[in-house]
Design a protein that fits this description.
This protein is of the alpha+beta class and 235 residues long. The protein has one domain. The chain is built from 6 helices and 5 strands; from the N terminus they run αββαααααβββ. The strands form 2 sheets. It has a 3-stranded antiparallel β-sheet. Helix 3 packs across helix 4 and helix 4 crosses helix 6. The longest helix has 19 residues.
């Protein structure tokens, strides 16, 4: 195991909403992002904003998140469940690193942990997408050149890591045996080169109930499960 007073008038409400539009909201792959049903998720570091400069208003954050969740709910089908595979990108080969022995075992463990904490409640394709982003980052010059380096980027100091589960000061030990077994199996498949990339080369992602300002800079490649995926324009 790797260690590591609310506004009450309509005018005030409108003012708060206008203010929020200028506040960067952290997300998945950029800096520590959202939490989905107890899962921990991440987003871009290109360029990563200084988290310490973000305004920490619990009321504002709750109001913003509630609004985005309500908007996201409009996309749900009559059955009340969201399409888990809509807009998946075309098949794209994964730039899998060649590893063996202890290096491969360590990489497989780090990748499995990331899949588990980021997407264990996602459908199979959603978990493949998180694995793909992790491996795509290994191949990118913008990120560390190892799986564990990518997963642990930013260190364990709170709010500094790329994937929030790594620096949230909670135990990283998987608690759901079945989900952990699936994450491990998927990790092995990815490193064996048996998976294609459903994100079409994405390096970043965020939850579908937020609209981070950084997403306007990138090209959206796909929407899979509850995540939207991006890569630099022209890449």
């Amino acid at each position: 195991m790797i260690k590591k007073s609310a506004p009450t008038t309509a005018t005030a409400t409108v003012a708060l909403s206008l203010c929020l539009s200028a506040v960067p909201i952290p997300l998945a792959g950029y800096v520590p992002a959202h939490l989905i049903g107890g899962e921990k998720t991440a987003s871009p570091s290109y360029p990563a904003p200084n988290r310490s400069s973000l305004i920490n208003l619990d009321l504002a954050r709750a109001d913003y998140r509630g609004a985005r969740i309500r908007q996201s709910a409009k996309t749900l089908g009559a059955s009340g469940t969201e399409d888990k595979t809509a807009e998946a990108g075309p098949e794209h080969p994964l730039p899998v690193p060649r590893l063996s022995g202890k290096a491969r075992s360590r990489a497989a463990h780090c990748l499995a942990l990331n899949i588990y904490h980021e997407a264990r409640s996602e459908p199979r394709l959603g978990q493949e997408a998180v694995a793909a982003v992790t491996i795509n980052r290994v191949a990118s010059t913008k990120f560390p050149n190892s799986v564990c380096g990518v997963v642990q980027q930013g260190g364990t100091k709170r709010n500094r890591c790329q994937f929030s589960w790594w620096c949230d000061r909670r135990s990283d030990r998987p608690q759901e045996a079945d989900a952990w077994a699936r994450a491990q199996a998927l990790s092995r498949e990815a490193l064996d080169g048996k998976l294609s990339d459903p994100t079409n080369g994405a390096l970043y992602y965020h939850a579908n109930y937020v609209e981070p300002r950084w997403s306007r800079v990138f090209h959206k490649t796909s929407r899979i499960g509850r995540h939207l995926f991006y890569k630099p324009r022209g890449a």
